[in-house]
C-alpha cells in the first residue's frame, strides 16, 4: 500500500469519544522522508470564553454549561494529547475571542499549556484575527516550550529530534488583507514541513476575508501539511501532497455552528500520513426537521419529535445536545397552533421531558406548517377564506413583493403599533423568515374565520 499513491480517499471518520478505540484511515502517501514517527494535533478557533450572548433570553437555558463549553472542549483536547502521547499541538489561530474581560481567561489557557509541557508536548500558536497582537493586550508569563509565531515576519522552527519544521506567522492586526504565503520560508530538506496559517483561503460567505490565498499557492510552497484556521466548518481542502485541512472550531458556539466539532489527530510514519477527526465538543448544536404530514394530535407530535431527537443523539450520550427543531409539513396541528399560539412549542418541550438517555435542551422550536385544507378549492371561494388564500399565494410568489407589502402594512398601522414595531424594517428578515411569518399569519386568520363560521 505504501508504494502506491492513493487518490480520492474518504473523509476521516469521526471519533466522538476520545477514550474509544481509534478507527484509522487508509494511509496517504507523501514523498519519502527519513524521520522518526511523528504524531500531532491540529486545532483552531478555540474562542476560549466566547461570551455566547443572548442566552439569558432563553428561559431555562443551561447558561453555565453553555458558556463553559469552550473551556471543557480545550480540557478535552489536552486530555486527548496526553492520552495519545502526541509530540506537537498546533493551534492555528483565534485562541481567544478578542481581548480578555479579565485575566481568568488567560490564566485558564496558560494552565492547559503547562499541562501539555509537563508531559513534553511542544505547542505552536499562530495568532489570528480575533487574538492578533493588536487585539489581546493583556499579558502573562510565557510557558517554556510553547512557541507563539512572530507577527512581524514568517519564521521556521526546526525540531531535529522529530524531523519536523514548523512554519508560521501571527497576525499583527485584526485586518489582514494580504496573502502571507509568499513570505513563508522555503521547506527544510529532509524534514516534514508543516505550515500554520490563519486564512479565509479563496473566501467563505460566513467569514471575513483575512489573509486570502489559493490552494495553488499552498501547493507551490512545497510543504507536506498545511494546518489552517479561521473557517469554523471542518473541510479537508486537499487530501495529500500537501494535505490541507480546516479542522473547524473546537466548540460550536451557537445554533448556526452545528454538528461535531473538534480537532485533527495526525500521524506521520515514513512519509505516510494517516489522520482522523476527533470530536471534542462539550455541547453539540443540532438543526432537526421533524415532518408532521398527516399528524393531527399532540401525542402524535410528541412521538415524532422523540423519534427524531433520539435518532440524532444515538451513540453520543456524553455531552449536552442543543436542539433547534423545525416542525414541517401539512398538518391539522397548524390550525391548533393558530387557535392556541404556543401550544406546539410547549408540546415539544414536554416531550423532551421523556428523554432520559441523553442530555437535551431545546433552543428553539420553529414552525413551517401548512393547513391541510384544499388550497386550490379555497382560493376559488368567494368569501373571506378565499380572499385570504389568494392574497397569501400572491405574496408568497414574490419575496420582494412580500417584503414591500409588510413594510406598507407597518406604515399604515403605525398609529396602532408601538414605536419600535412601526419603525421595524422587514428587509432585515430573510425571505425564508418572511415566508414563515406569512404562513403563520394565514393559519391564524383562517382558524379565526373557521371558528366564526366563514368556513362553513
From TrEMBL:
> Boundaries of each Calcineurin-like phosphoesterase domain copy?
38-232
Q: Quote one Gene Ontology molecular function term.
A: hydrolase activity
Q: Which Gene3D superfamilies match?
A: 3.60.21.10
- Does Ubl conjugation appear among the keywords? no
Keyword list (alphabetical) reads:
Hydrolase
Q: Where is the signal peptide?
A: none
Entry keyword Hydrolase: yes
Q: Which InterPro entries does the entry link to? A: Calcineurin-like_PHP, DNA_Repair-Maintenance_Comp, Metallo-depent_PP-like, Mre11_N, Pesterase_YhaO
Under the heading Pfam families, the entry gives: Metallophos
| Region Disordered: start-end pairs | 1-25
Q: What is this protein called?
A: Metallophosphoesterase
Amino acid at each position: 500500500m505504501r508504494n502506491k499513491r492513493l487518490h480520492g480517499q474518504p473523509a476521516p471518520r469521526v471519533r466522538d469519544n476520545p477514550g474509544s478505540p481509534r478507527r484509522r484511515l487508509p494511509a496517504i502517501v507523501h514523498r519519502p522522508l527519513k524521520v522518526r514517527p511523528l504524531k500531532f494535533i491540529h486545532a483552531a478557533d478555540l474562542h476560549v470564553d466566547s461570551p455566547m450572548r443572548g442566552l439569558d433570553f432563553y428561559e431555562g437555558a443551561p447558561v453555565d454549561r453553555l458558556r463553559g463549553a469552550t473551556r471543557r472542549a480545550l480540557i478535552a483536547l489536552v486530555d486527548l494529547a496526553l492520552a495519545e502521547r502526541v509530540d506537537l499541538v498546533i493551534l492555528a489561530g483565534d485562541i481567544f475571542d478578542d481581548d480578555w474581560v479579565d485575566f481568568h481567561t488567560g490564566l485558564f489557557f496558560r494552565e492547559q499549556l503547562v499541562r501539555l509541557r509537563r508531559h513534553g508536548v511542544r505547542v505552536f500558536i499562530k495568532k489570528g484575527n480575533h487574538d492578533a497582537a493588536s487585539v489581546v493586550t493583556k499579558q502573562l508569563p510565557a510557558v517554556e516550550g510553547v512557541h507563539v509565531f512572530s507577527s512581524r515576519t514568517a519564521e521556521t522552527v526546526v525540531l531535529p529530534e522529530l524531523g519536523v519544521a514548523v512554519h508560521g506567522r501571527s497576525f499583527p492586526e485584526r485586518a489582514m488583507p494580504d496573502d502571507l504565503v509568499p513570505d513563508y520560508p522555503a521547506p527544510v530538506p529532509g524534514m516534514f514541513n508543516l505550515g500554520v496559517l490563519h486564512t479565509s483561503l479563496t473566501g467563505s460567505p460566513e467569514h471575513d476575508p483575512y489573509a486570502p490565498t489559493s490552494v495553488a499557492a499552498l501547493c507551490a510552497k512545497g510543504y507536506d501539511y498545511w494546518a489552517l484556521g479561521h473557517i469554523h466548518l471542518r473541510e479537508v481542502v486537499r487530501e495529500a501532497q500537501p494535505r490541507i485541512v480546516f479542522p473547524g472550531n473546537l466548540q460550536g458556539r451557537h445554533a448556526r455552528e452545528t454538528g461535531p466539532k473538534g480537532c485533527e489527530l495526525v500521524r506521520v510514519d515514513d512519509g505516510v500520513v494517516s489522520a482522523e477527526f476527533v470530536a471534542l465538543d462539550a455541547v453539540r448544536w443540532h438543526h432537526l426537521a421533524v415532518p408532521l404530514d398527516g399528524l393531527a394530535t399532540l401525542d402524535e407530535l410528541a412521538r415524532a419529535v422523540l423519534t427524531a431527537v433520539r435518532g440524532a443523539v444515538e451513540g453520543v450520550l456524553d455531552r449536552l445536545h442543543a436542539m433547534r427543531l423545525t416542525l414541517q409539513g401539512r398538518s391539522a396541528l397548524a390550525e391548533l397552533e393558530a387557535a392556541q399560539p404556543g401550544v406546539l412549542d410547549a408540546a415539544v418541550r414536554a416531550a423532551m421531558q421523556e428523554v432520559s438517555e441523553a442530555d437535551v435542551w431545546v433552543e428553539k422550536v420553529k414552525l413551517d406548517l401548512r393547513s391541510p385544507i384544499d388550497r386550490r378549492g379555497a382560493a376559488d371561494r368567494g368569501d373571506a377564506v378565499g380572499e385570504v388564500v389568494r392574497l397569501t399565494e400572491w405574496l408568497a410568489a414574490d419575496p420582494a413583493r412580500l417584503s414591500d407589502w409588510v413594510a406598507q402594512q407597518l406604515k399604515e398601522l403605525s398609529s396602532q403599533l408601538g414605536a419600535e414595531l412601526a419603525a421595524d424594517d422587514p428587509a432585515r428578515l430573510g425571505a425564508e423568515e418572511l415566508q414563515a411569518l406569512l404562513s403563520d399569519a394565514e393559519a391564524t386568520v383562517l382558524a379565526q374565520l373557521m371558528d366564526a363560521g366563514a368556513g362553513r
